[in-house]
Specification:
The chain has about 180 residues and is of the alpha/beta class. It has a single domain (about 10-175), classed as Rossmann fold (3-Layer(aba) Sandwich). The chain has helices spanning about 20-30, 45-55, 70-85, 105-135, 155-170; strands at about 10-15, 35-40, 60-65, 90, 100, 140, 155. The strands form two sheets. The protein has a five-stranded parallel sheet, sandwiched between helices. Strands 5-7 form a two-stranded antiparallel sheet. Helix 3 packs parallel to helix 4 and helix 4 (about 105-135) runs parallel beside helix 5 (about 155-170). About 45% of the residues are buried.
Length: about 180
Protein backbone atom coordinates (compact mmCIF):
# COMPACT_ATOMS: atom_id res chain seq x y z
CA UNK A 1 0.00 0.00 0.00
CA UNK A 2 1.43 3.37 -0.98
CA UNK A 3 1.51 6.40 1.26
CA UNK A 4 -1.34 8.87 1.03
CA UNK A 5 -0.37 12.11 -0.72
CA UNK A 6 -1.58 15.14 1.18
CA UNK A 7 -3.78 17.10 -1.18
CA UNK A 8 -6.00 18.57 1.55
CA UNK A 9 -7.41 21.92 0.46
CA UNK A 10 -6.33 21.51 -3.15
CA UNK A 11 -8.75 21.54 -6.08
CA UNK A 12 -8.33 19.35 -9.15
CA UNK A 13 -10.12 19.27 -12.51
CA UNK A 14 -10.09 15.99 -14.43
CA UNK A 15 -11.34 16.02 -18.02
CA UNK A 16 -12.69 12.71 -19.24
CA UNK A 17 -13.38 12.04 -15.57
CA UNK A 18 -16.39 9.77 -15.94
CA UNK A 19 -14.70 6.52 -16.97
CA UNK A 20 -11.43 4.62 -17.13
CA UNK A 21 -8.19 6.41 -16.26
CA UNK A 22 -9.99 9.71 -15.64
CA UNK A 23 -12.43 8.24 -13.11
CA UNK A 24 -9.61 6.33 -11.36
CA UNK A 25 -7.49 9.49 -11.24
CA UNK A 26 -10.34 11.57 -9.83
CA UNK A 27 -11.08 8.93 -7.20
CA UNK A 28 -7.41 8.77 -6.17
CA UNK A 29 -7.15 12.56 -5.96
CA UNK A 30 -10.30 12.68 -3.80
CA UNK A 31 -9.03 9.88 -1.53
CA UNK A 32 -5.89 11.95 -1.04
CA UNK A 33 -7.89 14.97 0.11
CA UNK A 34 -8.41 17.02 -3.06
CA UNK A 35 -11.77 18.47 -3.95
CA UNK A 36 -12.34 17.15 -7.46
CA UNK A 37 -14.23 18.47 -10.45
CA UNK A 38 -14.89 15.85 -13.11
CA UNK A 39 -15.92 16.76 -16.62
CA UNK A 40 -17.35 14.65 -19.42
CA UNK A 41 -20.04 14.85 -22.09
CA UNK A 42 -22.53 12.22 -20.90
CA UNK A 43 -24.47 13.35 -17.80
CA UNK A 44 -25.59 9.86 -16.74
CA UNK A 45 -22.10 8.33 -16.77
CA UNK A 46 -20.64 11.49 -15.21
CA UNK A 47 -23.10 11.33 -12.32
CA UNK A 48 -22.32 7.64 -11.74
CA UNK A 49 -18.62 8.51 -11.42
CA UNK A 50 -19.42 11.41 -9.08
CA UNK A 51 -21.50 9.11 -6.88
CA UNK A 52 -18.63 6.60 -6.72
CA UNK A 53 -16.34 9.38 -5.48
CA UNK A 54 -18.94 10.60 -2.95
CA UNK A 55 -19.43 7.03 -1.70
CA UNK A 56 -15.67 6.85 -1.11
CA UNK A 57 -15.90 9.99 1.06
CA UNK A 58 -14.62 12.44 -1.55
CA UNK A 59 -15.80 15.93 -2.43
CA UNK A 60 -16.73 16.07 -6.10
CA UNK A 61 -18.51 18.35 -8.52
CA UNK A 62 -19.64 16.89 -11.85
CA UNK A 63 -19.73 19.34 -14.76
CA UNK A 64 -21.11 18.30 -18.12
CA UNK A 65 -18.65 19.71 -20.63
CA UNK A 66 -17.40 18.91 -24.11
CA UNK A 67 -13.68 19.70 -24.26
CA UNK A 68 -13.94 20.35 -27.99
CA UNK A 69 -15.99 23.45 -27.11
CA UNK A 70 -14.12 26.55 -25.94
CA UNK A 71 -17.28 27.83 -24.23
CA UNK A 72 -17.71 24.55 -22.32
CA UNK A 73 -14.06 24.52 -21.24
CA UNK A 74 -14.21 28.13 -20.06
CA UNK A 75 -17.44 27.38 -18.16
CA UNK A 76 -15.79 24.32 -16.56
CA UNK A 77 -12.88 26.36 -15.21
CA UNK A 78 -15.07 29.32 -14.19
CA UNK A 79 -17.46 26.96 -12.36
CA UNK A 80 -14.54 25.30 -10.56
CA UNK A 81 -13.05 28.58 -9.34
CA UNK A 82 -16.47 29.99 -8.40
CA UNK A 83 -17.33 26.88 -6.36
CA UNK A 84 -13.98 26.22 -4.68
CA UNK A 85 -12.13 29.54 -4.96
CA UNK A 86 -9.04 28.07 -6.60
CA UNK A 87 -7.55 25.51 -8.97
CA UNK A 88 -4.37 23.59 -8.14
CA UNK A 89 -4.30 20.58 -10.47
CA UNK A 90 -5.46 20.18 -14.06
CA UNK A 91 -5.57 16.66 -15.47
CA UNK A 92 -6.03 16.69 -19.25
CA UNK A 93 -7.31 13.17 -19.79
CA UNK A 94 -10.18 13.38 -22.28
CA UNK A 95 -9.83 11.21 -25.35
CA UNK A 96 -10.58 7.97 -27.07
CA UNK A 97 -8.43 5.28 -28.59
CA UNK A 98 -8.20 4.52 -32.29
CA UNK A 99 -5.89 1.98 -33.88
CA UNK A 100 -6.16 1.96 -37.65
CA UNK A 101 -3.86 1.77 -40.64
CA UNK A 102 -3.02 5.05 -42.35
CA UNK A 103 -5.25 4.40 -45.36
CA UNK A 104 -8.23 3.65 -43.09
CA UNK A 105 -8.18 7.06 -41.38
CA UNK A 106 -10.13 9.75 -43.19
CA UNK A 107 -9.69 13.49 -42.73
CA UNK A 108 -12.73 13.83 -40.48
CA UNK A 109 -11.31 11.21 -38.10
CA UNK A 110 -7.93 12.99 -38.01
CA UNK A 111 -9.62 16.28 -37.13
CA UNK A 112 -11.85 14.74 -34.46
CA UNK A 113 -8.97 12.86 -32.83
CA UNK A 114 -6.65 15.86 -32.73
CA UNK A 115 -9.46 18.07 -31.43
CA UNK A 116 -10.43 15.84 -28.50
CA UNK A 117 -6.88 14.93 -27.47
CA UNK A 118 -4.48 17.69 -28.46
CA UNK A 119 -6.56 20.84 -28.94
CA UNK A 120 -8.74 20.05 -25.93
CA UNK A 121 -5.64 19.93 -23.73
CA UNK A 122 -4.44 23.22 -25.20
CA UNK A 123 -7.90 24.77 -24.78
CA UNK A 124 -8.24 23.59 -21.18
CA UNK A 125 -4.70 24.62 -20.25
CA UNK A 126 -5.27 28.11 -21.62
CA UNK A 127 -8.51 28.48 -19.65
CA UNK A 128 -6.97 27.13 -16.44
CA UNK A 129 -3.62 28.90 -16.60
CA UNK A 130 -4.58 32.11 -14.74
CA UNK A 131 -5.99 30.13 -11.78
CA UNK A 132 -3.07 27.71 -11.83
CA UNK A 133 -0.59 30.58 -11.80
CA UNK A 134 -2.30 32.04 -8.72
CA UNK A 135 -2.04 28.72 -6.86
CA UNK A 136 1.33 27.59 -8.23
CA UNK A 137 -0.51 24.56 -9.55
CA UNK A 138 0.32 21.66 -11.82
CA UNK A 139 -0.83 20.30 -15.18
CA UNK A 140 -0.89 16.58 -15.88
CA UNK A 141 -1.43 15.46 -19.46
CA UNK A 142 -2.44 11.81 -19.77
CA UNK A 143 -1.02 10.11 -22.84
CA UNK A 144 0.25 6.71 -24.00
CA UNK A 145 3.62 5.13 -24.84
CA UNK A 146 2.29 4.80 -28.41
CA UNK A 147 3.05 8.51 -28.75
CA UNK A 148 6.76 7.71 -28.52
CA UNK A 149 6.76 4.17 -29.93
CA UNK A 150 3.87 3.77 -32.36
CA UNK A 151 3.00 0.34 -33.60
CA UNK A 152 1.57 -0.64 -36.94
CA UNK A 153 -2.03 0.41 -37.35
CA UNK A 154 -1.87 2.84 -34.41
CA UNK A 155 -3.37 5.88 -36.12
CA UNK A 156 -4.57 8.48 -35.35
CA UNK A 157 -4.01 7.93 -31.61
CA UNK A 158 -0.22 7.59 -31.83
CA UNK A 159 0.04 10.92 -33.67
CA UNK A 160 -2.32 12.88 -31.41
CA UNK A 161 -0.63 11.46 -28.32
CA UNK A 162 2.84 12.30 -29.69
CA UNK A 163 1.63 15.87 -30.02
CA UNK A 164 0.29 15.62 -26.46
CA UNK A 165 3.71 14.54 -25.25
CA UNK A 166 5.21 17.62 -26.90
CA UNK A 167 2.54 19.71 -25.13
CA UNK A 168 3.67 18.10 -21.83
CA UNK A 169 7.28 18.92 -22.52
CA UNK A 170 6.63 22.63 -23.04
CA UNK A 171 7.49 23.21 -19.40
CA UNK A 172 4.04 23.87 -17.99
CA UNK A 173 3.64 20.34 -16.68
CA UNK A 174 6.78 20.82 -14.57
CA UNK A 175 5.22 23.66 -12.65
CA UNK A 176 3.53 26.91 -13.40
CA UNK A 177 5.98 29.82 -13.50
Amino acid sequence: MSERANLDGQVAVVTGGSEGIGRATALRLARNGARVVIAARRPDVLEQAAQLIRDAGGTVLAVVADVTSTADVERLIETTVAKFGRLDILVNNAGTGRADAFEAVDEETWHADLDVKLFAAIRTTRAALPALKRSGGRIINVTTPAGKHPGAKSLPTSVSRAAGIAHCECGLSRGIP
